[in-house]
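Input C-alpha coordinates:
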Protein backbone atom coordinates (compact mmCIF):
# COMPACT_ATOMS: atom_id res chain seq x y z
CA UNK A 1 0.00 0.00 0.00
CA UNK A 2 1.39 3.37 -1.01
CA UNK A 3 1.97 6.02 1.59
CA UNK A 4 -0.24 9.01 2.24
CA UNK A 5 1.38 12.30 3.21
CA UNK A 6 -0.69 14.92 5.00
CA UNK A 7 0.73 18.39 5.57
CA UNK A 8 -0.87 21.40 7.19
CA UNK A 9 1.58 23.94 5.73
CA UNK A 10 1.31 26.34 8.66
CA UNK A 11 1.13 26.06 12.43
CA UNK A 12 -2.39 26.56 13.67
CA UNK A 13 -2.92 29.91 15.26
CA UNK A 14 0.57 31.19 14.41
CA UNK A 15 0.36 32.38 10.83
CA UNK A 16 -3.31 31.64 10.21
CA UNK A 17 -4.59 33.20 13.40
CA UNK A 18 -7.00 31.76 16.00
CA UNK A 19 -10.24 32.23 14.04
CA UNK A 20 -8.81 30.65 10.90
CA UNK A 21 -7.39 27.75 12.87
CA UNK A 22 -10.82 26.87 14.31
CA UNK A 23 -12.41 26.36 10.90
CA UNK A 24 -12.36 23.04 8.98
CA UNK A 25 -9.62 22.93 6.36
CA UNK A 26 -10.08 22.92 2.60
CA UNK A 27 -8.30 19.74 1.54
CA UNK A 28 -6.22 19.78 -1.64
CA UNK A 29 -4.78 16.60 -3.08
CA UNK A 30 -1.80 15.38 -5.09
CA UNK A 31 -1.84 12.07 -6.94
CA UNK A 32 1.87 11.38 -7.28
CA UNK A 33 4.00 8.60 -8.78
CA UNK A 34 6.60 7.19 -6.41
CA UNK A 35 7.98 4.28 -8.46
CA UNK A 36 9.14 3.62 -12.01
CA UNK A 37 10.63 5.91 -14.69
CA UNK A 38 8.28 8.84 -14.02
CA UNK A 39 9.07 9.02 -10.31
CA UNK A 40 12.05 11.30 -11.00
CA UNK A 41 9.54 14.13 -11.52
CA UNK A 42 7.49 13.48 -8.37
CA UNK A 43 9.50 15.82 -6.16
CA UNK A 44 8.84 18.80 -8.43
CA UNK A 45 5.07 18.26 -8.34
CA UNK A 46 5.13 17.89 -4.55
CA UNK A 47 7.26 20.99 -4.04
CA UNK A 48 4.95 23.10 -6.19
CA UNK A 49 1.88 21.91 -4.31
CA UNK A 50 3.49 22.53 -0.92
CA UNK A 51 4.58 26.00 -2.02
CA UNK A 52 1.06 26.85 -3.11
CA UNK A 53 -0.56 25.71 0.12
CA UNK A 54 1.97 27.56 2.26
CA UNK A 55 1.62 30.73 0.16
CA UNK A 56 -2.18 30.66 0.23
CA UNK A 57 -2.33 30.00 3.97
CA UNK A 58 0.13 32.80 4.67
CA UNK A 59 -2.25 35.10 2.77
CA UNK A 60 -5.20 34.00 4.89
CA UNK A 61 -6.52 30.94 3.05
CA UNK A 62 -9.99 31.19 1.54
CA UNK A 63 -13.49 31.66 2.96
CA UNK A 64 -12.05 31.98 6.47
CA UNK A 65 -10.45 28.53 6.20
CA UNK A 66 -6.90 27.35 5.69
CA UNK A 67 -5.76 24.78 3.14
CA UNK A 68 -4.45 21.30 3.93
CA UNK A 69 -2.45 19.16 1.49
CA UNK A 70 -2.91 15.40 1.20
CA UNK A 71 -0.66 13.38 -1.12
CA UNK A 72 -1.46 9.86 -2.29
CA UNK A 73 1.37 7.98 -3.97
CA UNK A 74 1.10 5.05 -6.38
CA UNK A 75 3.40 2.97 -8.59
CA UNK A 76 2.46 4.31 -12.02
CA UNK A 77 -0.20 2.38 -14.01
CA UNK A 78 -3.60 3.92 -14.85
CA UNK A 79 -5.49 1.61 -12.48
CA UNK A 80 -3.20 2.64 -9.63
CA UNK A 81 -3.75 6.33 -10.45
CA UNK A 82 -7.52 5.82 -10.34
CA UNK A 83 -7.24 4.01 -7.00
CA UNK A 84 -5.09 6.85 -5.61
CA UNK A 85 -7.61 9.48 -6.71
CA UNK A 86 -10.45 7.47 -5.19
CA UNK A 87 -8.59 7.24 -1.86
CA UNK A 88 -8.00 10.99 -1.79
CA UNK A 89 -11.68 11.69 -2.33
CA UNK A 90 -13.41 8.85 -0.51
CA UNK A 91 -11.06 8.33 2.44
CA UNK A 92 -9.50 11.75 2.95
CA UNK A 93 -12.26 14.14 1.93
CA UNK A 94 -10.38 15.80 -0.94
CA UNK A 95 -12.52 17.50 -3.59
CA UNK A 96 -9.75 19.19 -5.62
CA UNK A 97 -6.48 17.61 -6.73
CA UNK A 98 -3.58 17.84 -9.15
CA UNK A 99 -1.09 15.18 -10.17
CA UNK A 100 2.03 13.90 -11.86
CA UNK A 101 0.32 11.96 -14.61
CA UNK A 102 1.03 10.64 -18.09
CA UNK A 103 -1.92 11.08 -20.42
CA UNK A 104 -3.09 7.47 -20.15
CA UNK A 105 -3.47 7.91 -16.41
CA UNK A 106 -5.26 11.23 -16.75
CA UNK A 107 -7.72 9.75 -19.23
CA UNK A 108 -8.52 6.96 -16.77
CA UNK A 109 -8.89 9.33 -13.81
CA UNK A 110 -10.94 11.86 -15.78
CA UNK A 111 -13.50 9.18 -16.62
CA UNK A 112 -14.16 8.71 -12.88
CA UNK A 113 -14.53 12.37 -11.91
CA UNK A 114 -18.31 12.58 -12.25
CA UNK A 115 -18.82 9.68 -9.85
CA UNK A 116 -16.21 11.08 -7.47
CA UNK A 117 -17.73 14.59 -7.57
CA UNK A 118 -14.20 16.02 -7.60
CA UNK A 119 -12.27 18.50 -9.73
CA UNK A 120 -8.95 17.51 -11.30
CA UNK A 121 -6.53 20.32 -12.20
CA UNK A 122 -3.98 18.48 -14.36
CA UNK A 123 -0.45 19.84 -14.16
CA UNK A 124 1.31 17.39 -16.47
CA UNK A 125 -0.68 15.32 -19.00
CA UNK A 126 -0.48 16.62 -22.56
CA UNK A 127 -2.68 14.56 -24.90
CA UNK A 128 -5.17 16.74 -26.77
CA UNK A 129 -7.75 14.00 -26.31
CA UNK A 130 -8.15 15.12 -22.68
CA UNK A 131 -9.64 18.44 -23.82
CA UNK A 132 -11.03 16.96 -27.04
CA UNK A 133 -13.28 13.94 -27.42
CA UNK A 134 -12.56 12.84 -23.83
CA UNK A 135 -13.19 16.25 -22.23
CA UNK A 136 -14.97 16.21 -18.89
CA UNK A 137 -16.83 18.93 -16.94
CA UNK A 138 -14.69 18.23 -13.86
CA UNK A 139 -11.35 18.07 -15.68
CA UNK A 140 -9.23 21.22 -16.17
CA UNK A 141 -5.80 21.22 -17.81
CA UNK A 142 -3.27 23.66 -16.35
CA UNK A 143 -0.34 22.41 -18.45
CA UNK A 144 0.16 22.71 -22.19
CA UNK A 145 -1.22 20.23 -24.75
CA UNK A 146 0.72 18.24 -27.34
CA UNK A 147 -0.65 20.46 -30.10
CA UNK A 148 1.13 23.50 -28.64
CA UNK A 149 4.44 21.66 -28.52
CA UNK A 150 4.00 20.42 -32.08
CA UNK A 151 3.42 24.03 -33.17
CA UNK A 152 6.87 24.87 -31.75
CA UNK A 153 8.45 21.89 -33.56
CA UNK A 154 6.85 23.02 -36.80
CA UNK A 155 8.11 26.58 -36.38
CA UNK A 156 11.67 25.43 -35.66
CA UNK A 157 11.59 23.14 -38.70
CA UNK A 158 10.45 25.99 -40.94
CA UNK A 159 13.22 28.25 -39.61
CA UNK A 160 15.79 25.56 -40.35
CA UNK A 161 14.35 24.61 -43.77
CA UNK A 162 13.84 20.98 -42.73
CA UNK A 163 12.65 18.60 -45.45
CA UNK A 164 12.91 15.19 -43.75
CA UNK A 165 12.18 14.06 -40.20
CA UNK A 166 12.86 11.03 -37.98
CA UNK A 167 10.86 10.38 -34.81
CA UNK A 168 11.94 8.64 -31.61
CA UNK A 169 9.03 8.29 -29.21
CA UNK A 170 8.14 6.54 -25.99
CA UNK A 171 5.23 4.18 -26.46
CA UNK A 172 2.68 6.18 -24.48
CA UNK A 173 -0.49 8.14 -25.22
CA UNK A 174 0.97 11.67 -25.27
CA UNK A 175 3.93 10.68 -27.45
CA UNK A 176 1.72 8.92 -29.99
CA UNK A 177 -0.60 11.94 -29.97
CA UNK A 178 2.34 14.26 -30.68
CA UNK A 179 3.66 11.94 -33.42
CA UNK A 180 0.26 11.85 -35.10
CA UNK A 181 -0.03 15.62 -35.05
CA UNK A 182 3.50 16.19 -36.32
CA UNK A 183 2.95 13.72 -39.15
CA UNK A 184 -0.16 15.66 -40.14
CA UNK A 185 1.66 19.03 -40.36
CA UNK A 186 4.80 17.88 -42.19
CA UNK A 187 3.19 18.20 -45.66
CA UNK A 188 2.37 21.84 -44.82
CA UNK A 189 6.08 22.63 -44.60
CA UNK A 190 7.14 20.43 -47.49
CA UNK A 191 8.74 17.80 -45.26
CA UNK A 192 8.43 14.03 -45.17
CA UNK A 193 8.59 11.47 -42.36
CA UNK A 194 11.55 9.14 -42.79
CA UNK A 195 11.57 6.92 -39.66
CA UNK A 196 9.07 6.56 -36.80
CA UNK A 197 10.34 4.53 -33.84
CA UNK A 198 8.71 3.70 -30.51
CA UNK A 199 10.12 2.15 -27.35
CA UNK A 200 8.49 1.34 -24.00
CA UNK A 201 8.97 3.97 -21.30
CA UNK A 202 10.75 1.30 -19.25
CA UNK A 203 13.36 0.60 -21.96
CA UNK A 204 16.81 0.10 -20.46
CA UNK A 205 18.80 -0.36 -23.69
CA UNK A 206 18.18 1.98 -26.65
CA UNK A 207 20.93 0.40 -28.74
CA UNK A 208 18.58 -0.97 -31.40
CA UNK A 209 16.79 2.35 -31.86
CA UNK A 210 20.08 4.28 -31.96
CA UNK A 211 21.40 1.92 -34.66
CA UNK A 212 18.29 2.43 -36.79
CA UNK A 213 18.47 6.22 -36.47
CA UNK A 214 22.19 6.51 -37.24
CA UNK A 215 21.64 4.64 -40.51
CA UNK A 216 20.80 7.37 -43.05
CA UNK A 217 19.42 9.96 -40.60
CA UNK A 218 16.92 12.57 -41.76
CA UNK A 219 17.57 16.31 -41.42
CA UNK A 220 15.66 16.59 -38.15
CA UNK A 221 14.93 14.34 -35.19
CA UNK A 222 11.79 14.79 -33.06
CA UNK A 223 11.73 13.04 -29.68
CA UNK A 224 9.17 12.50 -26.93
CA UNK A 225 11.04 10.46 -24.33
CA UNK A 226 10.21 11.78 -20.84
CA UNK A 227 11.59 11.36 -17.32
CA UNK A 228 14.37 8.85 -16.61
CA UNK A 229 13.89 7.35 -20.08
CA UNK A 230 15.06 10.69 -21.49
CA UNK A 231 18.23 10.45 -19.42
CA UNK A 232 18.91 6.90 -20.59
CA UNK A 233 18.47 7.70 -24.28
CA UNK A 234 20.56 10.86 -24.09
CA UNK A 235 23.49 9.18 -22.37
CA UNK A 236 23.38 6.08 -24.57
CA UNK A 237 23.39 8.01 -27.85
CA UNK A 238 26.41 10.16 -26.88
CA UNK A 239 29.16 7.66 -27.83
CA UNK A 240 27.59 7.35 -31.28
CA UNK A 241 27.06 11.09 -31.76
CA UNK A 242 23.45 10.51 -32.76
CA UNK A 243 22.17 14.01 -32.08
CA UNK A 244 25.11 15.59 -33.94
CA UNK A 245 24.07 13.76 -37.10
CA UNK A 246 20.96 15.92 -37.40
CA UNK A 247 20.61 19.50 -38.54
CA UNK A 248 17.91 20.03 -35.90
CA UNK A 249 16.87 18.03 -32.82
CA UNK A 250 13.60 18.90 -31.08
CA UNK A 251 12.04 17.26 -28.06
CA UNK A 252 9.23 17.32 -25.56
CA UNK A 253 9.49 16.45 -21.85
CA UNK A 254 13.13 15.51 -22.40
CA UNK A 255 15.20 18.69 -22.05
CA UNK A 256 14.23 20.36 -18.78
CA UNK A 257 15.54 21.35 -15.36
CA UNK A 258 14.56 18.01 -13.80
CA UNK A 259 16.46 15.79 -16.24
CA UNK A 260 19.48 17.82 -17.30
CA UNK A 261 21.54 17.14 -14.14
CA UNK A 262 21.44 13.45 -15.06
CA UNK A 263 22.07 14.09 -18.77
CA UNK A 264 25.19 16.19 -18.33
CA UNK A 265 26.12 17.72 -21.67
CA UNK A 266 24.61 14.92 -23.78
CA UNK A 267 21.64 17.07 -24.86
CA UNK A 268 23.55 20.29 -25.67
CA UNK A 269 21.91 21.92 -28.69
CA UNK A 270 18.62 20.02 -28.34
CA UNK A 271 15.50 22.20 -28.43
CA UNK A 272 12.35 21.73 -26.40
CA UNK A 273 9.27 23.57 -25.21
CA UNK A 274 7.82 23.69 -21.74
CA UNK A 275 5.14 25.47 -19.79
CA UNK A 276 7.42 27.52 -17.54
CA UNK A 277 10.97 28.69 -16.85
CA UNK A 278 12.23 30.43 -13.72
CA UNK A 279 13.63 33.34 -15.75
CA UNK A 280 10.25 34.39 -17.15
CA UNK A 281 9.71 38.16 -16.76
CA UNK A 282 7.32 39.85 -14.34
CA UNK A 283 7.10 40.65 -10.65
CA UNK A 284 4.67 37.81 -9.89
CA UNK A 285 7.19 35.26 -11.14
CA UNK A 286 10.18 37.00 -9.56
CA UNK A 287 8.45 36.90 -6.16
CA UNK A 288 7.54 33.23 -6.65
CA UNK A 289 11.09 32.24 -7.61
CA UNK A 290 12.55 34.11 -4.64
CA UNK A 291 10.13 32.45 -2.21
CA UNK A 292 10.68 29.03 -3.77
CA UNK A 293 14.46 29.35 -3.56
CA UNK A 294 14.20 30.39 0.08
CA UNK A 295 11.94 27.41 0.84
CA UNK A 296 13.66 24.67 -1.19
CA UNK A 297 17.13 26.01 -1.96
CA UNK A 298 16.71 25.83 -5.74
CA UNK A 299 14.78 27.38 -8.59
CA UNK A 300 11.39 25.89 -9.46
CA UNK A 301 11.17 23.39 -12.31
CA UNK A 302 8.31 23.64 -14.79
CA UNK A 303 6.28 20.88 -13.11
CA UNK A 304 6.64 22.56 -9.74
CA UNK A 305 5.37 25.77 -11.29
CA UNK A 306 2.35 24.06 -12.84
CA UNK A 307 1.42 22.27 -9.61
CA UNK A 308 1.70 25.64 -7.83
CA UNK A 309 -0.36 27.33 -10.55
CA UNK A 310 -3.07 24.64 -10.28
CA UNK A 311 -3.88 25.60 -6.70
CA UNK A 312 -3.41 29.34 -7.22
CA UNK A 313 -6.06 29.26 -9.96
CA UNK A 314 -8.30 27.04 -7.84
CA UNK A 315 -8.05 29.46 -4.91
CA UNK A 316 -9.28 32.32 -7.10
CA UNK A 317 -12.20 30.17 -8.25
CA UNK A 318 -13.13 29.20 -4.68
CA UNK A 319 -13.15 32.85 -3.63
CA UNK A 320 -15.13 33.79 -6.73
CA UNK A 321 -17.67 31.04 -6.03
CA UNK A 322 -17.80 31.88 -2.33
CA UNK A 323 -18.00 28.16 -1.76
CA UNK A 324 -16.12 24.84 -1.96
CA UNK A 325 -19.14 23.16 -3.53
CA UNK A 326 -17.80 21.34 -6.59
CA UNK A 327 -20.43 22.54 -9.11
CA UNK A 328 -19.99 26.14 -7.92
CA UNK A 329 -16.20 25.99 -8.15
CA UNK A 330 -16.40 24.33 -11.56
CA UNK A 331 -18.57 27.19 -12.84
CA UNK A 332 -16.17 29.75 -11.35
CA UNK A 333 -13.17 28.09 -13.02
CA UNK A 334 -14.73 28.33 -16.47
CA UNK A 335 -13.46 31.48 -18.14
CA UNK A 336 -11.48 32.68 -15.11
CA UNK A 337 -8.66 35.12 -15.90
CA UNK A 338 -5.72 36.14 -13.73
CA UNK A 339 -2.17 37.41 -13.80
CA UNK A 340 0.17 34.59 -12.79
CA UNK A 341 3.78 33.47 -12.68
CA UNK A 342 3.56 32.81 -16.46
CA UNK A 343 1.71 36.05 -17.23
CA UNK A 344 -1.94 36.48 -18.15
CA UNK A 345 -3.88 33.22 -18.39
CA UNK A 346 -7.49 32.19 -18.95
CA UNK A 347 -9.23 28.89 -18.36
CA UNK A 348 -11.16 28.38 -21.56
CA UNK A 349 -14.77 27.46 -20.81
CA UNK A 350 -15.33 25.48 -24.00
CA UNK A 351 -12.82 22.70 -23.28
CA UNK A 352 -11.20 23.53 -19.91
CA UNK A 353 -7.77 24.14 -21.43
CA UNK A 354 -5.72 26.93 -19.86
CA UNK A 355 -4.77 29.47 -22.52
CA UNK A 356 -1.19 30.42 -21.68
CA UNK A 357 2.21 31.18 -23.24
CA UNK A 358 4.75 28.48 -24.06
CA UNK A 359 8.49 28.69 -23.39
CA UNK A 360 10.95 27.53 -26.07
CA UNK A 361 14.21 26.33 -24.51
CA UNK A 362 17.51 24.77 -25.50
CA UNK A 363 20.20 22.86 -23.63
CA UNK A 364 23.43 24.90 -23.45
CA UNK A 365 26.87 23.83 -22.19
CA UNK A 366 28.03 25.56 -19.00
CA UNK A 367 31.22 23.58 -18.31
CA UNK A 368 32.78 20.29 -19.43
CA UNK A 369 30.20 17.60 -18.73
CA UNK A 370 27.54 20.08 -17.59
CA UNK A 371 24.66 21.96 -19.20
CA UNK A 372 21.63 24.06 -18.34
CA UNK A 373 18.25 24.80 -19.88
CA UNK A 374 17.99 28.35 -21.24
CA UNK A 375 15.09 30.33 -22.68
CA UNK A 376 15.34 31.09 -26.38
CA UNK A 377 11.81 32.37 -26.99
CA UNK A 378 8.43 32.83 -25.33
CA UNK A 379 5.58 32.05 -27.70
CA UNK A 380 2.32 33.93 -26.98
CA UNK A 381 -0.75 31.86 -26.26
CA UNK A 382 -2.53 32.95 -29.42
CA UNK A 383 0.23 31.42 -31.52
CA UNK A 384 0.50 28.00 -29.89
CA UNK A 385 -2.81 27.17 -28.16
CA UNK A 386 -5.12 25.85 -30.87
CA UNK A 387 -8.88 26.56 -30.79
CA UNK A 388 -11.12 24.31 -28.74
CA UNK A 389 -11.87 21.01 -30.43
CA UNK A 390 -15.35 20.51 -31.83
CA UNK A 391 -15.11 16.96 -30.46
CA UNK A 392 -15.34 18.30 -26.91
CA UNK A 393 -18.91 17.97 -25.68
CA UNK A 394 -19.32 19.02 -22.06
CA UNK A 395 -22.25 16.84 -21.14
Amino acid sequence: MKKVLVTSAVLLGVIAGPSLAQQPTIKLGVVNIDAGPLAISATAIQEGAVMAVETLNAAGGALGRRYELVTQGHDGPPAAAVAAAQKLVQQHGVSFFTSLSPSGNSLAVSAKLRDLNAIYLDASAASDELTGKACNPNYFRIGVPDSAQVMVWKDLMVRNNIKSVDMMMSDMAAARDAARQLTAVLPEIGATLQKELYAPLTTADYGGSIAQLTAKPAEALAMYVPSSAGINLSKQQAPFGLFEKYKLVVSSSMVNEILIPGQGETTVGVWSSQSYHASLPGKVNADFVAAFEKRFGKKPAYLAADAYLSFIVLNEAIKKAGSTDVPAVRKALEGIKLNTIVGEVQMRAADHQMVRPLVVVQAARTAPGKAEVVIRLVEPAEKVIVPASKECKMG
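The chain has 14 helices and 16 strands. The radius of gyration is 21 Å.
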